[in-house]
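User: Hey, quick favor. My workstation is busy. Could you predict this chain's structure for me?
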Amino acid sequence: MSETPIIKIKSEPEIIRIIAKRKGDVSIETINLRIIMANLWWEGSPELETFFNVMELKIKKALNEVYPHDKMSIDYNYSADDALEDASKILVEITDIKADGVDIDIGGRFITLDGTDSRGFFKKMTSFRRKFTKEICKEI
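Assistant: No problem, here it is.
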């Protein structure tokens, strides 16, 4: 059994599972996208920023249960298939996680957020000009 903590992320259309493992300990955290998005819509909150905050906190919570730590740093990229207000697909890639300076192994580092594509033909054809990519580095 490995001393190094492992974070594995499984992304499904409606649920994201974050699994933390170390030695014989396992922690599973779940993010239900329908409930979060419905609540954000109701409250009028910024969807992406709030989703990322929930994702970061769930990763920290799962990791803390198997590997207690004070500070966690996480680096990730996200890209959209169009400008954010028109995007129908957002891909998140977790590139690095450290807990108190210790590197965490990452398995299943991609999260895909899919929505309905209501763009017209012309917007779809020209979306390559508006594609959006951003890199985030945070310490929690």
